[in-house]
Amino acid sequence: MAEPPDKRMSAREAIERLVQDGDELIIGNYTVGTCTELVYEVVRQRKKNLTLYSQSGILDVEVLVAAGCVDRLVTTYVLRSGGKTGGSAVERALQAGTLEIEDYTNFNYNARLVAGLHGFSFMPVFEGVMATDLFKKRAFLGANKYRVIRCPYTGKDVLTVPAANPEVCLVHVQRADRFGNAQYWGSLGSVAAAALCSRRIVVSCEEIVDHEVIRSSPHLTIIPAYRVAAVVEVPWGAHPTEVLGYYNLDRFMYGLFTAAAATGDGLKAWMEEWVFGCADRRAYLDYYSRIYGSDLLDHLKAQHYYSAPADYGSAFTSVWDENGRERSLGLTLEELERLLRDKELLYE
What are phi and psi of 101, to 5 degrees? Predict the structure, then answer.
């Protein structure tokens, strides 16, 4: 059997190849460990007219909106620190009329992703939301934000949301192999659904490991290689957010961002320094260490706390033995096919 293709790329190459102006783009990470370096690369390449999906818009969404990359936003939560009078690129864009937003509950947003990953065109959701402005107020999705249909079994009205199938998902995980098998552990949220409902998936990871490491812990693989378009090894690729098993949230850096984001000019200056001013994550880390010292980063590194290993051993890994014979009957594939053909049990 031929080896799967090697999908390793730089962040610059992956974003250049796989994210196009006008795409529907989803941030796969939910609240923690966001795909910061991939987002920064989208900003550096000045992608435009994106429709952005994000269940928990924090620094990532603010930066994309501030850079003018996003025209439309589908979300359940955005940082918007300080509310309508506080510092937020999203709030400023909404007030300026340069951004449209569709707001869902967490459940309804996830229902759209789950419908998309299963290949359904819609998903039923709880009708209680019909009493709220989430149902009544609509932007660019209009009538397609929610639809009410008649249940063919009960005859009752059923509230539905449409499937989401964004062109591209950006997601950060702990580790992957060179083929793209991506492993993630910790607070999962909608990470797997966001990736698997998308047409193209760009994975960044803290480290690329041997395929045998992936095979030894299959329960951690949330995205299989055949669904992945690119895998990017980028240590500290989620900083200043946290990655379980690698590093904690950098509250100091997050504070710098929040203070800068209080005004449009402040956020622009911050992005010139930390996004446009750093060609890639290596340059970003070098700059951080030069300005603030490496001790701050070292202090954030996770202490080891390993889970107990599980035994995935079996007597054999295939029904075919080392001589190419089926273990129960002792026949080769050719002999088995001939036997079935003779008994008129093989349909070709």
Answer: -135, 140
Low-confidence ranges of the chain (pLDDT < 70): 1, 82-83, 86, 348
Which domains does the chain carry?
Answer: 11-121+163-233 (3.40.1080.10), 314-348 (no CATH)
pLDDT of residue 31: 85
Nearest CA among 335, 337, 315, 333 for reference residue 324: 333
How does pLDDT run across 177-192, given as a tens digit for each residue?
999 999 999 999 999 9
280 torsion bin: left (phi>0), alpha (psi -120 to 50), beta (else): beta
Distance of CA 287 to the CA centre of its chain: 27
Q: What is the dihedral of CA 109, 138, 140, 267, to 10 degrees?
A: -70
Cα 69 from chain centroid? 18
Q: Is 336 exposed, middle or buried (0-12, 13-18, 19+ CB in 10 A)?
A: middle
Q: Tokens 């007219």 belong to which residue?
A: 49
d(C-alpha 150, C-alpha 154), whole Å: 8
**How many CB atoms are closer than 10 A to CB 29?**
32
Q: Quick one: DSSP state of residue 298?
A: H
Residue 63 to residue 48: CA distance in whole angstroms: 13
pLDDT for 1 equals 62
In contact, 11 and 204? CB cutoff 8 Å: yes
Around 343, how many Cα atoms within 13 Å sit in the side-chain half-sphere? 6
Residue 252 to residue 292: CA distance in whole angstroms: 10
Residue with the two structure tokens 């690729």: 237
272 by DSSP, 3-state: which?
helix
CA distance 191 to 338: 47
CB atoms within 10 A of CB 154: 8
User: Beta-carbon neighbour count of residue 79 at 10 Å?
Assistant: 21
Tell me the Ramachandran region of residue 33: left when phi exceeds 0, alpha when psi lies from -120 to 50, beta otherwise.
Answer: left
CA dist 182 and 203 (Å) reads 7
